[in-house]
Specification:
alpha/beta, Aspartate Aminotransferase, domain 2, Aspartate Aminotransferase, domain 1, 2 domains, 7-stranded mixed sheet, globular, binds pyridoxal-5'-phosphate
Length: 374
């Protein structure tokens, strides 16, 4: 699904130089590259404040901590997401309230969010799944009028843009009170280990987030709040500065691959290509097709595997069916779209180093399967 070595090959020398310079400088914690990377990423995202941290899960934890919500406050989270979104909520003693997603974009269903808002709601976490923005326009209005915070889990859609009815455009992660992202190696902007960051438009909140990520300290050994030790390593920041320069190229490669898949796969029986929301760009962290059910999906997966083609299921089990979250008391059947999607979705290879010839082979095998040859 990924070929990081091939993806890094064109700029391997730049990575080596960054690595070596950081080792020589020996400022491994909060070295100059950390701030430089935060500034560069912030300006790339339309002048947002960027606070680096240790990983995308910590970013969610820090975002929630910064809201200073009462214990047990309800946090609305989509039922179809990576578990980290829920985990941060649960670990802080807040109450995850799950809502179903849309069958077309797989992003959170607005009517379900509206129905889930109560006087105890503290925040809504929107997840921009697979690289396309959730309905930020409606979410922003809904959260504003309900007096609850909007958090964007932007681990999968860094660089995607959303255009509002006014014509104003914003980057994913910079619309809500706080946005979070992950630099896990497999993400669109991945480092060579773990990393993450938070985004906000509010300088005071950025300062608070920075403090929370550094043991809650205002200066060394003076602690205002209970915080985390959650920092981006200088080494990772130095490598991310290199990779950020190459991100537009990688993003264009993903989008070109997605467009070719769209053209080749549209109309194949039993298979739906990813739905596009015209208000959002799509950065294709994953290219996810939808099959009619678990039988055909698993058969296609087996066929591709037999032909040497990797594919993946994000996610095979919805969060409310995970044993760890049984305590929330949800029943199977409560989130029918999320549950159905777990049996229908299949992610195809869409990484930037995938060649046209490799993709053509995938397309031929998909066509062969759809024609009954699987
Ligand atoms: C990857 C991911 C995370 C967690 O990021 P880590 O850096 O692995 O902690 C959170 N939410 C979503 C939607 C993700 O895809």
């Amino acid at each position: 699904m990924l070929d990081l070595a091939a993806e890094h090959a064109p700029y391997q020398a730049e990575l080596d130089t960054a690595w070596r310079a950081t080792v020589q400088e020996a400022a491994f914690i909060q070295g100059p590259a950390v701030r430089a990377f935060a500034t560069e990423l912030g300006s790339w995202l339309g002048d947002a404040h960027v606070v680096p941290c240790a990983n995308g899960t910590d970013a969610l934890t820090l975002a929630l901590l910064s809201l200073e919500l009462p214990p047990g406050a309800e946090i609305i989270v989509p039922a179809f997401t990576y578990v980290a979104t829920l985990e941060a909520v649960a670990l802080l003693g807040l109450r995850p309230v799950l809502v179903d997603v849309r069958p077309d974009t797989f992003n959170v269903d607005l009517a379900a969010v509206r129905a889930a808002i109560t006087p105890r709601t503290g925040a809504v976490i929107a997840v921009h799944l697979f690289g396309q923005c959730a309905d930020l326009e409606s979410l922003k209005i809904m959260c504003l009028s309900a007096g609850v915070f909007l958090i964007e889990d932007n681990a999968q859609a860094l660089g995607a843009t959303f255009t509002f009815a006014t014509g104003e455009m914003a980057y994913a992660g910079t619309v809500g009170e706080v946005g979070t992202t992950s630099f896990f190696p497999g993400k669109n902007l991945g480092c060579l280990g773990d990393g993450g960051a938070l985004f906000t438009r509010d300088a005071a909140r950025a300062a608070l987030l920075h403090q929370l990520a550094n043991h809650g300290q205002s200066q060394k050994y003076y602690h205002q709040r209970i915080g985390l030790n959650s920092r981006l390593d200088t080494l990772q920041a130095a490598l991310l500065r290199v990779k950020l320069r190459h991100l537009p190229t990688a993003q264009a490669a993903r989008q070109a691959l997605a467009a070719r898949y769209d053209a080749a796969l549209a109309g194949l029986p039993g298979l739906q290509i990813p739905a596009r929301d015209p208000r959002s760009s799509h950065v294709f962290h994953q290219y996810v097709i939808r099959m009619d059910g678990p039988g055909p999906r698993d058969a296609l997966r087996a066929h591709l595997k037999a032909k040497g083609i990797p594919s993946a299921v994000y996610y095979p089990l919805p969060v409310h069916a995970q044993p760890a979250y049984a305590y929330l008391g949800y029943q199977v059947g409560q989130f029918p779209v999320a549950e159905a999607l777990c049996g229908q979705v299949l992610a195809l290879p869409v990484h930037p180093a995938l060649t046209e010839a490799q993709q053509e082979y995938v397309v031929v095998q998909l066509g062969y399967f759809a024609a009954g040859g699987g």
